[in-house]
Structure formats: C-alpha cells, structure tokens
Automatic annotation (TrEMBL), chain A:
It comes from the Bacteria. The keyword Oxidoreductase applies. Belongs to the SoxB family. GO terms for cellular component: cytoplasm. This is Sarcosine oxidase subunit beta. Pfam families: DAO. Signal peptide: none annotated. Its cofactor is FAD; FMN. PANTHER family: FAD-DEPENDENT OXIDOREDUCTASE DOMAIN-CONTAINING PROTEIN 1, SARCOSINE DEHYDROGENASE-RELATED. It comes from Candidatus Rhodobacter oscarellae. Transmembrane segments: none annotated. It is found in: Cytoplasm.
Automatic annotation (TrEMBL), chain B:
It comes from Candidatus Rhodobacter oscarellae. Keywords: Oxidoreductase. One of its GO terms (molecular function) is sarcosine oxidase activity. It is an enzyme of class 1 (oxidoreductase). This is Sarcosine oxidase delta subunit.
Length: 417, 87
C-alpha cells in the first residue's frame, strides 16, 4: 500500500476500511543472511538500507520488546548537523541530507520540520567559538548563520536577555535543523524494510551469540536458535549486555537522561533553542507542549527514570533562560538509557569476531543519527568496508588514542560528557 | 537517592560526586601495556543490576566511598570507605 493525498481522500470518503497493517508479523526462519539485533531506529534503518542499497533482503530484525520501544520513542526529536570535529561533522552532515529526503524515500510522513536550531552565546569568547564552528559547518557545505540579540528579541521576546549571569550575546543558527515525529521514523523504516522482504520479529530476545573459531554462526533467542552469516548489534542503551554475549567489553557506561513536556500551550516557540550553559534545550511540539531536557543524572543507570536533583536543575535552567515557563505545568517526565562513550562520540565498526559488527555508543545524540547510522552500518555489513561518512567512528580509537572525537574538549574519560 | 556514607550516615545524593565503576582501585602498573590500560581507562562491565562504584563525599566528610548499588532499581545496597577496601 502506498500513501498519498488521493489515498487519504478516498479512504476518508469510504469509511477508512482499506488501511492495512504496516508490516507483517512473521515467525523466525531457521537461517538468515543477516541478523540485526535490536528493532529500534538504528536497527530498522540498517535493515532498510541493507535491502534498498545492497539488495540484501534475507534479513531478520530481532527485537526483545516491540518495534521502536526504546530510545527512538523516548527522545526529544531534535535533528541537526552542527558538529565541529572531523568524524562527527561529515557523519551528521550526511545524516541530515538523508533526513531531508526521508519522507519521499520511505513514502511515510515523519513530520520533519526544519524549524531551525540555535545555540546561545553568553560571552565574547563563546561567540568566537560558535562562529568558528559555524565557519567549519559552512566549509563542508552545511548551513550556519550568526544571529543577533536584536533578531532574537523580535522573535523570542520572552528570553532572559539581560540576565546578569548569562546575558545573551547572540547565537549560531542552523536553519536546516529541526524536529521530527520520532515514532514515525521507526515505523517508516520498519514498513520500508518489511516491504522489501525483511522479517521484523518482535518479542524475540537474543540470549546468546554463537561463535565458532572466531566466526559468528548465529544467535540463540527466546524463540529458538537462528543461524546467520552476519550479525549486527544495534542495541544502544543495552550494548554492554549484548556485547558480553560475544565475550566483549565495550568502552561504554550506561547513564540515564531525563526529558520533560509541559501541558499544551499556544504556539510560542518556532525553533529549537539550546542553552548550553544550563545544559538545557527546548522546542515546542505540534501539540503545543514545550519539550525540554537537561543533562545526564551522572551515575550509571538502566532505570529509564531519573532522580529529583536533575529535575530541579533542569527547572532552574528553564527559569533562567525563559522565566515565562514558570506559568506552565510539567505534564510528564521520562528517562532514556544512554550508551556513554569516553569521548562522547559513537561507534560503527567490525569486531574481532568475523561476521559480527557493532553500532553503539550514541550517547545522547542517537535520534538525529538514525538515517546516517543505518546507511553507514548497512554499508559496512554489506561490503565489509566502512562508509566514508563513518570511517572515523572506530572502536579501537580509545586504545590507540588516534581519532578521538571529544567535542566538549573535556578529555576522553568516562563521566565527563 | 540517598547514599549511606560510613562516616556521616545516610545523605542526599547531591552531596556526592560520581566517579564511576570502582575499577580505579585496581590501577595497573605503568608498564602493564596498552591492553591493560585500555581495560582500566575505557572498557567497562557496565552491569544491569548490582554494581560497585566510587563516589566522593565532597559535600560532607570528603571521603571516597565504594557504593554497592543496583543500576536497574536504583536500590543502594551498602557502602564502605575506599581507603579500607583498597587495603
């Protein structure tokens, strides 16, 4: 079934009886060419691009819960490509280009809204650093624009421009950045992969990875053993547990990151604002809720919920940046599990086991990376060589010290990002 | 979350700074080689369940403590002074 305006009109006039399920619910076959462990955004995108770009359709995606039930459904939906360091910058640049054509490619409305994102500056030094970053972004062909406090006062008059501690000096705007409907991204990739023959198998938890003489042979699951020539681990949030099944230890600690949404309000915020000094960022959803988040709780956690000190910190940052938010009521808060690497950047690489690949370490930036990660991981698994956008996202960079991508400049150690 | 400091008793988590898994107590020799140092600095068990980790009681007595904690439930199972664990 193809979605179109005509289809919606026809269905609307005929009682909406013609809609069909978006994907099948197949039982696992005994053997596949490729198994993807993890049916989140990255896993589903990998399966989609394996089928679309490389013609590999004898693929199973194994998901222990339901499709898109992890971080792809728990994030704050921001899409951007404003990284500074080589390695990250070309990867996210490529990912944003895929986002821009995603709806046509998938024939699925992911509600990408390029409403822009602005990084605020509060000092001359910070302005210089942001302008330098903007120049780097423009040099590689992406957009970046310095915007003045006057422009901001006109558009977002409620910001606290004259705060004694954090006066607003300007900001770096990327107009092609924005937000997307996070669940729809998972569903769109799932539907696209299913249509090309990929088996999406839910409620199927991987319990072991079969390795013989250094070569992967398949996986053990709660629904039986499944053989495969290649296996990809795409389980950010739980990467450590799955990698342990293959005898690996990863440079990852899992941390909880909280997010919040207010009750629905009238339109007041037409972009994404990042207030880095307060570890705070905010946008407004299409339903009107102000969606915002803060920093990690800063201790290892798999709980998918955080503690009150960070709630208080985020609320303080919100009041510092835009005091009017004090009139809004917080409707919900939730937490997601972040794969935190020592340098704050991701990993897409092969492992020491032949046929076993890993895509992990997305820290708190995984959502915008979904298309780029799936594209690059599919390329690596299909061809055996890294895609050029992701060739620096190596697993061994921590051992060698070569190619660390520490955007914050705090050092490549755990708990600093 | 409240942590039981062996010196000060049970205190709010805001008084503490998190260092990470308690591997810092097993520092390898300077000449132990790349693999041992990568293991120490970067690689982690990262358990979903009970873990041992280092916290610094900067807002209290200034002690380093080893906390046993469950990473899935946030239940705190006990704490000892790092100086005593290291001996």
């Amino acid at each position: 079934m193809r979605f179109s305006g005509l289809k919606i009109l026809t269905e609307g006039l005929t009682g909406n009886r013609g809609w069909t399920p978006h994907w099948r619910d197949p039982a696992p076959k005994p053997e596949y060419d490729v198994i993807i462990i993890g049916g989140g955004g990255h896993g589903l995108a990998t399966a989609y691009y394996l089928a679309k770009n490389h013609g590999i359709t004898n693929v199973a995606v194994l998901e222990k819960g339901y499709l898109g039930g992890g971080n792809v459904g728990r994030n704050t939906t921001i899409v951007r490509a404003n990284y500074f360091l080589p390695g990250n910058s070309e990867f996210y640049s490529h990912s944003l280009k895929l986002w821009e054509n995603l709806e046509q490619d998938l024939n699925y409305n992911v509600m990408l809204s390029q409403r822009g994102q602005v990084l605020l500056s509060h000092s001359d030094g910070q302005s210089d650093a942001l302008i330098r970053r903007g120049n780097a972004m423009r040099n590689q062909g992406d957009d970046a624009e310095w915007i003045s406090p006057e422009y901001m006062r006109k558009n977002w008059p409620y910001l606290n421009f004259d705060s004694p501690r954090f006066p607003i000096y300007g900001g770096l705007m990327q107009r092609r950045a924005g937000t997307a409907r996070h669940d729809a991204v998972a569903w769109g990739y799932a539907r696209g992969a299913d249509q090309r023959g990929v088996d999406l198998i839910q409620n199927c938890e991987v319990t072991g990875i079969d390795i013989e003489n250094g070569v992967v042979k398949g996986v053990q699951t709660t629904r039986g053993a499944i053989r495969a020539g290649k296996v990809g681990i795409v389980t950010a949030g739980r990467s450590g547990q799955v990698a342990a099944m293959a005898g690996m230890r990863l440079p990852i600690e899992s941390h909880v990151l909280q997010a919040f949404v207010t009750e629905g309000l009238k339109p007041c915020l037409d972009t994404v604002i990042s207030f880095g000094m307060g570890h705070f960022y905010i946008s407004q959803s299409d339903k009107g809720g102000l969606v915002f988040g803060g920093d990690l709780d800063m201790y290892a956690s798999y709980a998918q919920r955080g503690n009150l000190p960070m709630v208080e910190h985020v609320a303080e940052a919100a009041m510092t940046l835009m005091p009017m938010i004090g009139k809004a009521k917080i409707l919900r808060s939730w937490g997601g599990i972040m794969d935190m690497t020592p340098d704050g950047s991701p990993i897409i690489d092969r492992t020491d086991t032949d046929g076993l690949f890993i895509d992990c370490g997305w820290c708190y930036g995984g959502f915008k990376a979904v298309p780029g990660s799936g594209y690059a991981f599919a390329h690596l698994m299909a061809t055996g060589t890294p895609h050029k956008s992701a060739e620096r996202l190596r697993l061994d960079r921590f051992r060698t010290g070569r190619g660390l991508m520490d955007e914050e400049g705090t050092g490549a150690q755990h708990n600093l990002h | 979350m409240r942590l039981p400091c062996p010196i000060c008793g049970e205190r709010d988590v805001r008084e503490f700074t998190y260092k990470g898994h308690a591997v810092a107590l097993d520092r390898p020799a300077p000449n132990a080689g790349d693999a041992a140092w990568e293991d120490y600095v970067h690689l982690r068990e990262n358990p979903a369940g009970e873990t041992r980790e280092l916290w610094y009681h900067g807002g209290g007595c200034g002690a380093w403590i080893v906390v046993r904690r469950n990473t899935v439930t946030h239940e705190v199972l006990g704490a000892e002074l790092a100086s005593e664990v290291a001996e």
